[in-house]
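ingest -> validate -> predict -> emit
validate: passed (alphabet ok, no gaps, 331 aa)
predict: started
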Amino acid sequence: MPIRAPTIRPRPRSSRRLRVACRASVAAATRLPALTLALALALGACAAPGLPSSQPPAQAAAIVDRAPPLPADVRAADIVLLGEVHDNALQHRLRLRWLEALADAHPIAIALEQFDADRQEALDRALSLEAQARRPVSDAPARARRVAEAAGFDFDGWDWELYRPVIELALRRGLPLVAANLSAAETARVARGEVPAAPLAPGWSAGDAEAMRTSIREGHCGLLPENAVGAMADAQRTRDARLARAVADARARTGLPVVLLAGNGHLRRDIGVPRYLEALRPSDRIVSVALLESEGALQPEPFDRVLRTRAQPREDPCAALRRAWKNGTPR
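emit:
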């Protein structure tokens, strides 16, 4: 059983896809000058709730390099939310082992943040074509890529090799795939105020709203202009609501347990996807499992379970952003 321990805040996201989405959101919310807008491309932490805190560690936590056995509550859950630090290769390998174990026990549907919900019909057609075709095992990588292309996977933004094994697993086992995310274009429209943000989750309080705004500020290294924070918090909340809706719809459509693969910030029980799922599927057993990194301060975070791994080597994204902001922002 994984050791339950106080958790660190997830590290900033390094995905180019998120940076592009954030550029649109920041521009819409703040009408920044062109040069400042270009620097927003460096906001790899965009809408990724939380950076390592400056507070001292609370206690040591166990670090794993192999997947522990699936806990009973995860095996029995109707909806499992499995997190990730997007570029952490070890976490992807561990999570794949858990997916295989779940699929060994019973069929599951796999929902991905990396697929946009408005591509579900195209995804379903691609899955159907691949299921009908008789192809050699050696063609598995190509088959997975065709499915991902149909679902609108951003090969420039996400590291395809980290997600390819999940798609291959689904094809090999005949598991449904779910396109779950709000598209970048839709996210930008929410941030610009062109379409309304998602309704507030039941019981959403002023404290929850401030927690979301704080996560946006910290997720941007404290450099996001304050007049953009509210709009981007609305966009993030709308993404969480859309992810929850996709999972709930898949659960109703397939009758299978659904596993959502998404960044850790989306899995927070206080302000993330679970808040919406609890209203959409009140009778379902929902378990949120964060995969976090070893570095950083330890603080209580609202996940049901935590698995901690070694950190992926990377440049500190905040340091790079501060250099760019200092050198390029117009005065």
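The chain has a mean pLDDT of 82.
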